[in-house]
Design a protein that fits this description.
Layout lengths: L1 E8 L2 E7 L6 H5 L4 H10 L2 E5 L2 E6 L1 H19 L6 H10 L6 H4 L11 E2 L4 E2 L4 H12 L2 E5 L6 H15 L4 E6 L15 H19 L2 H10 L2 E5 L11 E5 L7 H8 L7 E6 L13 H9 L5 E5 L9 H11 L4
Parallel strand pairs: 7-11, 7-12, 8-9, 8-10, 10-11
Antiparallel strand pairs: 1-2, 2-4, 3-4, 5-6
Helix pairs in contact: 2-4, 3-4, 6-7, 7-8, 10-11
Length: 330
Amino acid sequence: MARRELATVPDRARLELEFEQPYLLGPLFGDYDRHLITIEQRLGVHIAARGNRVQIEGEPDSASRARDVLLGLYNRLDQGHDVDAGAVEAVLGMAAQPQLEGIVTEDVTSAPKVMIRTRKKTIVPRSTVQTAYMEALARDELIFALGPAGTGKTYLAVAQAVSQLISGSVDRLILSRPAVEAGERLGFLPGDMKEKVDPYLRPLYDALYDMLPTEQVERRITSGEIEIAPIAFMRGRTLSDAFIILDEAQNTTPQQMKMFLTRFGMRARMVVCGDPNQVDLPDASKSGLADAVSRLEGVKGIATVRFTSADVVRHPLVGRIVDAYEGPGR
């Protein structure tokens, strides 16, 4: 692959990229060039493709970013990864972060240093914080993952858990979250206990089905290798040889959080995910997540990873919505 700077005038630059593997250009450009259009709209540049060459014209900084985005996406394809709308948005964000230059520039000739492999996909980081989080998932015994929806907190934790289950480094996965509210008063809902709590655990099921074939998920749930249950079901247990995830942890009380954290057994890993700004408890100041982080941050073997709206990997509008709700004066 070659790149050239064709012309530079004040406030304007024209760059050219030449790609060595033309068969990758279809998925790189997207159906009807939709990926190129996204890059043009986000960065305010003009991109023209002819054969295996691409010309980029725009302000020097924007043209350079567009070049890095295209190179990053091309390298992902060259490494065997898919490129979809989410990947385009992720690399657009990463191109503005110098510390991720090794991921988004043409110098990448091998797979990213941080990745999670599951039966159905290989997952690579889409932001600086996701990189740090994935490193912590592979390294630390207890992790607090804090931040808004759409940043990959629970999804990446489930991916790491599935990866470790497949490799045999843990014997089972235990996925939990508060049901309805901290008090978990489910009696008024129709159906048996499973029917009552399943709607509140659905995001965990969805993540599992994204990592493993459906029949494997169902077989492992039946065998007990994968357990999905509300936090109340953890009381009185010692969870050894397990990867344990608590989702929506901001809706636990300090007593529930202490109970959950002290279930920690030998050869266990635990990830606690939540958004401190989305507490549904009657008294938000009594969130067990905030209480636990204030007590345990800095303790050896415990990592705390904080996401922001800049790390949202859903539709870019989600990040702007988060900013609007959590900005100054809100």
